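Customer escalation, tier 2.

The customer says the design service returned an amino acid string that "doesn't look like it belongs to this structure." They asked us to rerun it and document both sides in this ticket. The original structure tokens are below, unchanged.
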């Protein structure tokens, strides 16, 4: 695979991350890219992630062993039709969309079912675009593959191997099952998150007290509302049947707990939360899904000048990168005044050790969950 040629149509957060991961793992491969943004193409070539930027009509697409469709769902269909006549005889088409039925319909229409392996890295970030892409985004994330019944087994094994090589975890699923599963664990949560944020906005008073004190748990469960509205508009429209079905099930659940609250049904209310806690605690702790694992600690610090700077300097001296740092004003559900977020678990573990040795009192997310 080190001699393979890869093509990318679209080079945002996920496309950019895959391209960077492939370049890192297979430094001698060739990568051709095209994207709407000229600055993105220039950056990819300048970073030496891409060998060259090409147009949609460039014959170079026929040289590709794999072509990654990395635009929004409906745009992928349009782009695929544009290059269909240029696809090489041994080229495998894959995508990164979170809904598979639309691209599968297009693949079928174009007679390319034997050359298609759908792909969906269960990874992401609140930030978007090539500038925020990184190979680490894919590390330990499930990467779902949805081949057709006509796809050659050797090519499926090949792509699984490639996915594993860039640090992700390959998982082969039927396309229909994929769309229902992602509807439940990805698409529905985004709808719920957006609805909750909009509810608080509408219920807040003129002084914005709800917005002022919103922190901790509220920010955690609504973080995904910072994602691209254009992308989520397309997802809702292309997976509307599954999302609608699941949304109705969720509404039924809300109506049930509302009734139990109205009737002061103490046992049923407790059971509602207890069953959720039990199931939630059975989840595998991984970086898969759109809601990435956060590497966060909180620190007890004195309210005095230079307190935050001292901690930042201490971590910098030990070459530990800080992703985010700030005062935690609402500590109803979390201990510690200073919240520090890191990029990697190793950095978090090292920071805890170093700061404890320096005499700081540290609280991790695990501490607050107990």
């Amino acid at each position: 695979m080190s001699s393979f040629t890869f093509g990318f149509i679209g080079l945002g957060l996920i496309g950019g991350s895959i391209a960077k991961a492939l370049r890192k793992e297979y430094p001698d491969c060739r990568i051709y890219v095209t994207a709407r943004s000229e600055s993105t193409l220039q950056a990819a070539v300048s970073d030496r992630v891409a060998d060259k930027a090409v147009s949609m009509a460039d014959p170079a697409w026929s040289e590709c062993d794999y072509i990654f469709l990395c635009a929004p769902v409906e745009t992928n269909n349009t782009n695929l039709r544009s290059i269909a006549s240029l696809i090489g005889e041994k080229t495998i088409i894959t995508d990164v969309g979170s809904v598979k039925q639309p691209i599968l319909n297009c693949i079928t229409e174009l007679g390319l079912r034997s050359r298609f392996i759908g792909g969906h890295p269960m990874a992401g970030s609140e930030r978007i675009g090539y500038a925020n892409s990184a190979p680490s985004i894919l590390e330990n994330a499930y990467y779902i593959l949805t081949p057709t019944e006509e796809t050659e087994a050797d090519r499926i094994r090949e792509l699984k191997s490639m996915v594993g090589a860039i640090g992700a975890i390959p998982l082969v699923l039927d396309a229909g099952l994929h769309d229902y599963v992602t509807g439940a664990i990805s698409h529905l949560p985004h709808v719920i998150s957006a609805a909750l944020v909009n509810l608080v906005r509408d219920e807040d008073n003129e002084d914005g007290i709800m917005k002022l004190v919103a922190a901790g748990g509220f920010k955690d469960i609504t973080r995904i509302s910072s994602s691209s509205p254009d992308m989520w508009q397309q997802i809702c429209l292309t997976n509307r049947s599954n999302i609608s079905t699941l949304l109705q099930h969720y509404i039924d659940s809300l109506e049930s707990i509302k009734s139990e609250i109205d009737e002061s049904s103490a046992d049923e209310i407790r059971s509602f939360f207890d069953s959720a806690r039990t199931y939630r605690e059975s989840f595998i702790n991984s970086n898969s899904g759109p809601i990435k694992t956060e590497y966060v600690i909180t620190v007890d610090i004195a309210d005095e000048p230079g307190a935050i700077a001292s901690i930042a300097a201490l971590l910098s001296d030990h070459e530990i990168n800080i992703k985010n740092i700030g005062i935690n004003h609402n500590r109803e559900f979390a201990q510690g005044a200073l919240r520090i977020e890191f990029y990697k678990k190793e950095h978090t573990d090292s920071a805890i050790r170093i700061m404890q040795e320096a005499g700081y009192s540290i609280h991790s997310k695990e501490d607050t969950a107990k």
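Tier 2 assessment: The sequence is consistent with the input. The radius of gyration is 23 Å. The longest helix spans residues 175-203. Sent an explanation to the customer and offered a walkthrough call.
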